[in-house]
From TrEMBL:
Major localisation: cytoplasm
Domain Dihydrodipicolinate reductase N-terminal per the UniProt entry, residue ranges: 7-128
EC number: 1.17.1.8
Protein name per the record: 4-hydroxy-tetrahydrodipicolinate reductase
GO molecular function list: 4-hydroxy-tetrahydrodipicolinate reductase
Gene3D superfamilies, sorted: Dihydrodipicolinate Reductase, domain 2, NAD(P)-binding Rossmann-like Domain
Name of the gene: dapB
Positions bound to NAD(+): 11-16, 37, 101-103, 125-128
Biochemical pathway: Amino-acid biosynthesis; L-lysine biosynthesis via DAP pathway; (S)-tetrahydrodipicolinate from L-aspartate: step 4/4
Highest rank taxon of the organism: Bacteria
Alphabetical list of NCBIfam families matching this protein: dapB
Length: 271
């Protein structure tokens, strides 16, 4: 496996962690170098393949993130903001690329990634799927073509376990719409409607979040104008699309200069 890219997966026991591990095993050019879990987790010390209910694959789940990351060429990380910041520091110390699919990060937390990005390649995206990143580009173009007579609403739906709202993908879409209009999202964002809120402010970009069942991820961007509506939609029915995108990003980072990148860079859609 010396000629393949070694990937360390954080949060190995989670839904995305397990999906990544299965997908890595089925993908040419990569191999699972390490499976990381938090200290005290029941999987630590077990073969990750067996812990997942399958055959042994020789990779023992570890809580020694520093050693595990040093043994890999790239880390794929779908955990939580504070954990992601800690992993970013370790990746920077080891000079190992970091692919971040963690959502719910604040602007301040994202800014904390900047020192690490000076030492390693970091790909961070609210959504790793090809379809969503194409939707981001379409949203920007449509927003640029329409004036404020068209109200913009971003509607997203996810499973009932999701802890952050709006979703990272919804915010990506909102940012794209704001960029298309030449405004800052923070100046026009409206995601807190409840009670008597008054009329909608012209030019605002609204967000609505739905949580229920096992919805993987659905996102609509609605441009509602006088007498007509344009709706751009993406529906994910399997987390496999996110795993494949993250692995594609992991491969892309190899040989890449340190810096902060996103999936548009990976897909060649920037510029």
């Amino acid at each position: 496996m010396a000629d393949t890219t070694g990937i360390a997966v954080t949060g190995a026991s989670g839904r995305m962690g397990q999906m990544l591990i299965r997908t890595i095993a089925q993908t040419d050019g990569v191999h699972l170098a390490a499976a990381i879990e938090r200290a005290g987790h029941t999987w630590v010390g077990q073969d990750v393949g067996q812990a997942m209910g399958g055959q042994a694959n020789g990779v023992i789940v570890t809580d020694d993130a520093s050693r595990a990351i040093a043994a890999a060429q790239v880390v794929i990380d779908f955990t939580a903001p504070e954990a992601t910041l800690a992993f970013a520091d370790l990746c920077a110390q080891a000079g190992v690329a970091h692919v971040i699919g963690t959502t719910g990060m604040t602007d301040a937390q994202i800014a904390q990634l900047e020192p690490a990005a000076r030492k390693c390649a970091i790909v961070r995206a609210g959504n790793m799927s090809l379809g969503v990143n194409l939707l981001v580009q379409l949203t920007k173009r449509v927003a640029a073509a329409l004036d404020e007579d068209f109200d913009i609403e971003v509607i997203e739906a996810h499973h009932h376990h999701k802890v952050d709202a709006p979703s990272g993908t919804a915010l990506m879409l909102g940012e794209a719409a704001a960029e298309g209009r030449g405004v800052a999202l923070n100046d026009v964002r409206d995601s807190g409607r409840d009670g008597i809120t008054g009329a909608r402010k012209r030019g605002d970009i609204g967000f609505a979040a739905i949580r229920g069942g096992d919805i993987v991820g659905e996102h609509d961007v609605m441009f509602a104008g006088p007498g007509e509506r344009i709706v751009l939609r993406h529906m994910a029915t399997d987390r496999l699309v996110f795993a494949r995108g993250a692995i594609r990003a992991a491969k892309w980072t190899q040989g890449r200069a340190p810096g902060a990148y996103d999936m548009l860079d990976v897909l060649g859609l920037n510029g």
